[in-house]
Amino acid sequence: MKLASAITVQAADPLSKALSLVEQNGVGVLVFDRKSYVGVIDERALRASSGDASTTRCKSAAVRTPILEPNASALDACKAFFSGRFKTLPVMEGTRLLGTVTRWEVMQAMREEGLLAGNTVGAHMASPILTIDANAPLSVADATMKQANVRRLAVLSNGRLVGLISLYDLLKAKAGPKQRRPQMKTFAHGLHARVSSFMKEQVETIEPAASLIEAVAKMLERQVAALVVTEGLRPVGIITAKDIFESALYHYENARVQVSGLHDLEKAAAADVVEAGQELLNKFGHTLGAESLTLHVKTAGKEYAVSAHLHGRTPLIASYSDFDLMSAVTAVLDELKTQGLKHKKTGMGGRKNRR
Q: What is the domain range of residue 155?
């Protein structure tokens, strides 16, 4: 797998330095404490940091990620990227940094290793895609993303697709003008502006019948991590780099239950989470027309927010929060079961929306 050059900062450097490098290069910055790897800083630091970025140290904002070994396969990298919302991972031999791997290198390797063959966009997209009007204020987009736990919205004007707005676009709006960016106290700035002011007007699209090989080729050519799936002029879904990674894990690892977002201290519970998911599929998979299950865990303070996505004939989504991880998992799986049984009786579809 081809390696990319690493961009690094030291743990004691100001966060403003790392954020400037992220904005200039569009990839994550690796943080080291001398020769010891600390973690990665990307645009998520804009959201997480509420203090002054010129006095905040990089060490406090870095997110710990998996480390890839020099001989890692594309499938190994898929597992690592799927375990969290990472855009850049370090490749190290002992304490020696060899380079980095981004989503682009992994998708290129997947294509070269034949991990995309036989799969279509329609089978792996999130559908339907959430939409927002171009004239809506950014505050509405922000609230919609938070409520639905998604990272992108299709932007419509008179029912026509005119753009795409992402969490990163909102973070840039919240941060305010560049000259005020080091002071991370300006998050409220810009949320009264219209969605059209910050959306990406160049939207890359693809049809449901297209192959994942075609989707990855387009992502690599245009350097985008998401494609809006359209039928004619109508947006019907979205497929992202994480969907591409998940497809490989499902088809080549026979992993019907995928769990992401668990931190190191919680990974001991991963087996219990997977077992609970497998129990749901074993008992109700046929009834619900389910093929696989994805669970993503997000922590907010001491609370666990678990989102679950049941993939198959009738895609379903549910979420639940609790101070106990397994209680949240149990509740969200019960909700999926309830939705599925309700759909069987009424014929009403669920919604699969992951990003």
A: 121-243
